Amino acid sequence: MYIYLDIVEKFSCQMCGTCCRNDWQVTVDQASYERNYALFARQGRLDEFRQAFSTLTGKAKPGEYAAIAKQTTGGACWFLADSNFCRLHREAGHQHLDAVCQTFPRYPMTSARGIELTLSFSCPAVLDQIARIEPMRLVKNEIPPLPLIPDQYTEQVFPKQKRKSDPLRYYFELEQHFIDIIQCRRLPFEQRISLLDQTVQQLGPCADHEDAGSQLNQLFWRNYDKMEAGLENAQPELSAEILIEHFLVNFIFKKPFYTYGLQQAFHWLELFWRTIMSGIDKSNTQAQWDSAKKIIMELEVHYGHNRSALGLVDRYCKK
After folding, report:
1. What is the pLDDT of residue 270?
2. What single-letter DSSP state applies at residue 191?
């Protein structure tokens, strides 16, 4: 089964080159390093290979063997041409690229439900695509929405492995409920954040109860009553608030509440929201949208592409 946010289905790369100019380090595994060595050796270009690829020293993460160099002027990827084409892609084809370059901005996860997929909001093409009023939807399908590389997953989510008293044993139900809260446009955004905070605080006592499932259901239905009691809003305009909603829903779907825990994930979510709201240019509607978009891209880079230094998320938000 494939479970994904509906933005995945229509994504198409715009060849803007932004992902090849960001300041994160692109690493390759040993197989990719050796594959590229063979390619450059056949072409008599080993001097360039040694400039473009450098093996990592010290402690590296599993699957990280070497890094691709940056261009000395501008800091773009070594292989990015002026036309925004990847020279390595053009010479050897898509399958020759390392998993990171083949996958981005796709964000694949494996879970007890199947293969789950969304997109990174650090990609301008993704942000252009979510410029819509319609809430993001969860899609379930037996057919993958796009080609995937086997065993290249950013998260692994298997809630039944949690102990019975852990609220995360009911993770999938929690995730959907959290998304419902953030997408409840009957409530002002600050009330949505507050309701999510209250819910996270109440999950521990619910899970400790001998009838945890029933307790969680009661909590959910109390929340839905509060959400239904909110004011009926007129058809919303395409605003920065809609963009923030989409961003936070995408953040929740990336499974941080499972991976990092309920309190830490909520801390980041609230911090993201406050950072965006405090940094928005309120001079006019377009300025609000553009400034929110810029902040969201920066937050996504810090959270999504620098997991080894997640403290940067807090430092960036508080600067």
Report:
1. 96
2. H
